[in-house]
């Protein structure tokens, strides 16, 4: 949280931890709905959503990404250089999911068919 700032109203503020854990199927639906907001979700290691709509602030501008990956991937990679966080980024254009750790992409999942 110290490496980010709130961009929009945090839809999870004021909600009990039990009601904002990603292990709860109801919260997963809410996450899908809030995913259209600009900014990142911050999720604690135990699955509790701390915030949505956060701007990741890093001093690390020196991550190397494949051509074609933009600002959301750069922010995800950079935050994992400065923290022990794992970051997940979903490409808006292709739907590919990338997991970053230590500034590197450690997993990439390509979408086979787009859901309508």
Describe this structure in words.
This protein is an alpha+beta fold and 116 residues long. It has one domain: DNA integrity scanning protein, DisA, N-terminal domain (YojJ-like (1, 3-Layer(aba) Sandwich), CATH 3.40.1700. It has helices at 25-34, 71-82, and strands spanning 4-6, 40-43, 49-56, 87-90, 97-101, 104-109. It has a 3-stranded antiparallel β-sheet. A 3-stranded antiparallel β-sheet has the order 4-5-6, covered by helices on one side. The protein is globular and about 40 Å long. The model has no long low-confidence stretch (mean pLDDT 86).
**Which structural class matches the secondary elements?**
alpha+beta
User: Radius of gyration from the CA trace?
Assistant: 14 Å
What is the number of strand segments?
A: 6
**What is the CATH superfamily label?**
DNA integrity scanning protein, DisA, N-terminal domain
Major β-sheet, in short? 3 strands, antiparallel
Mean pLDDT comes to 86
| Number of H- or I-type helical stretches | 2
Domain count: the total is 1
Looking at the overall shape, the CATH architecture is 3-Layer(aba) Sandwich
Percent of residues in helices: 10-25%
Beta-strand fraction estimate: 25-35%
SSE run: EHEEHEEE
Uncertain parts? none
The rough form would be described as globular
Q: Spatial order of the strands in the main sheet?
A: 1-3-2
- Per the CATH scheme, the topology name is YojJ-like (1
> What is the CATH top level name?
Alpha Beta
The CA-CA distance between the termini, in Å, is: 34 Å
